[in-house]
Specification:
The longest helix is centred in the N-terminal third of the chain and has 22 residues, at 104-125. The protein starts with a strand and ends in an 8-residue tail after the last helix. The protein is α/β, with parallel strands linked by helices. Helix 1 links the parallel strand 1 (3-7) and strand 2 (27-31). Helix 1 (12-23) packs parallel to helix 3. It contains 12 helices and 14 strands. It is globular. Strands 3-2-1-4-5-8-12 form a 7-stranded parallel sheet, with helices on both faces. A 3-stranded mixed sheet has the order 9-11-13. Strands 6-7 form a two-stranded antiparallel sheet. Nicotinamide-adenine-dinucleotide (NAD) binds next to helix 1, helix 2, helix 6, strand 5 and strand 9. InterPro entries: Epimerase_deHydtase (IPR001509), NAD(P)-bd_dom_sf (IPR036291). This is NAD-dependent epimerase/dehydratase family protein. Residues 4-278 form the NAD-dependent epimerase/dehydratase domain.
Length: 357
């Protein structure tokens, strides 16, 4: 028996990983306690996805409604599967800046403490298993905002010829900048994942994601950029824009492309690897640009409300470079760009996200 253990298995990246690794013939053990509902309310619950995974995958998926902060319950699961665990994919997290400020203890306990709990269990029970960690570009804090940017008609853009023109690389410093409470808890996890790679010679990777997206996102105002834009367009909700004239730029990568990268690492793991992983130059958008796209796809006029103040520490321009990952894993190819992603989010949710009467 070969087991893929996935935390946050009902979430966007977790559920895509569950399906993908099951399709490779592994038994998948998922851990998710629907904490997303506690963070963001009922509309963000991921319980629906557990029902789908269980009915679609049958015996190849086993779900555990367990909190990653619960060390005893986690240890039970790791003891049960032991060395059969062939890979651990850690996606469970408190993922929002704004929420973290409301409850820093819970944010840190889930993001930093939960990650440490998993690393230590891998060390004790299945040390050969690659540990794939979903980190974030927020580990760079607000440092990207010090890059020289130009204002174009629909977006901010980095000055031509800048070393990061094709995307921000992993050599950007994470020191001496504002991270937000969320960014700090993710830095702690990221550094600990690297440390278990170096100190204990485990096969660990931090994937510092840009905007991760896809139709399985339980999109809500505080988390899930493209999903929430599409939800607003479809349900005729008002989308609140915070600062930067709506021209801030995000790169966006589909969960399929993310999980394909995880598979590449699983097949040829390294120790203490760190990769930026995002849409890059291939797949990025500003708010204004994606609003126009959402209008074309849905046929609905976008309702927006502009707030002058930007969110503290929010990136004005983020396009990450996938170059380091592509050098290490040249067979990995990105499939999706922003129009494909938005179209797919629309089609997958057209029966679910219905305008209020
Ligand atoms: N979505 C993005 O734009 C983005 C960008 C960069 C990094 N990331 C990171 O990628 C990872 C996955 O993000 P996502 O968008 O799939 O998030 P998600 O919220 O869709 O999925 C996370 C899942 O983890 C579960 N969970 C949360 N706390 C838990 C706990 N204590 N115990 C057990 N389960 C718990 C939630 O219920 C949810 O189903 C996170 O680490 C996030 O910080 C996401």
């Amino acid at each position: 028996m070969s087991v893929a253990l996935v935390t946050g298995s009902a979430g966007l990246i977790g559920s895509e990983a569950v399906r993908h690794f099951a399709s490779l013939g592994l038994d998948v053990v998922g851990i998710d306690n629907d904490m997303r509902k506690r963070f963001f309310g009922a509309e963000a619950s991921t319980a629906w996805n557990v029902v789908r995974l269980t009915s679609d995958l049958g015996e190849s998926y086993t779900h555990h409604d367990v909190d990653i902060r619960d060390r005893d319950a986690l240890a039970e699961i790791f003891k049960r599967y032991g060395k059969d665990i062939a890979v651990v994919i850690h996606t469970a997290a408190q993922p929002s800046h704004d929420w973290a400020v409301r409850d820093p203890f819970t944010d840190f306990d889930v993001n930093a403490g939960g990650t440490l709990n998993l690393l230590q269990n891998v060390r004790e029970h299945c040390i050969e298993a690659p540990f794939i960690h979903c980190s974030t570009n927020k580990v760079y804090g607000d440092r990207p905002n010090s890059l020289p940017l130009q204002e174009l008609e629909t977006r901010w853009e980095i000055e031509p010829g800048h070393p990061y023109e094709n995307g921000i690389k992993e050599d950007m410093s994470i020191d001496a900048c504002l991270h937000s409470v969320f960014g700090a808890s993710k830095v702690a996890a990221d550094v600990m994942v690297q440390e278990y790679g170096r100190y204990f010679d485990m096969k660990t990777a931090c994937f510092r994601g840009g905007t991760l997206t896809g139709p399985a996102h339980s999109a809500t105002e505080l988390h899930g950029f493209l999903g929430y834009v599409m939800r607003c367009a479809m349900e005729r909700r008002t989308y609140k824009i915070f600062g930067y004239k709506g021209k801030m730029v995000r790169d966006a990568i589909h969960s399929h492309d993310v999980v394909a990268a995880f598979e590449a690492f699983f097949r040829m793991p390294r120790s203490a690897a760190v990769y930026n992983l995002g849409g890059g130059r291939h797949s990025n958008t500003s708010h204004l640009e994606v609003f126009a796209l959402a209008e074309r796809i849905t046929g609905n006029e976008m309702r927006t409300e502009y707030h002058e103040a930007n969110r503290i520490g929010d990136h004005q321009w983020w396009i990450g470079s996938n170059e380091r990952f592509q050098q290490d894993y040249p067979d990995w190819k990105q499939v999706y760009d922003v129009p494909m992603i938005c179209q797919e989010i629309y089609e997958a949710n057209v029966d679910k996200w219905i305008p209020e009467a």
